[in-house]
Amino acid sequence: MTPLAWPDLVAEALRRRKAEGLTQRNHAALAGVSIPTMAAFERGETTLTLAKAFDILRVVGLLDERPPEDAQDRFVREAMARWRDLTDRLEPDAAARFPHGWFRFDYWLDGDLRQVSPAELQKILAASVQPHTGWPLFMVRDQQGLSPIEINGLIETWLKPDGFEGVDRTFSDAASCDFWRVAPDGRAVILRGHQEDSQDTFDPATVFDWTLPIWRICETLLHARQVAEHLQTDWARPPEVRFRVTYTGLLGRQLRSWASPLEDLGLPTRPARQGDYSAEVMVGGAALPEALLPTISALVLPLYGLFGIDRLPEARIASVVENFLTSRTRQRRPVTPTAAAS
Question: 335 forms bridges with which residues in the sheet?
Answer without folding.
Answer: none
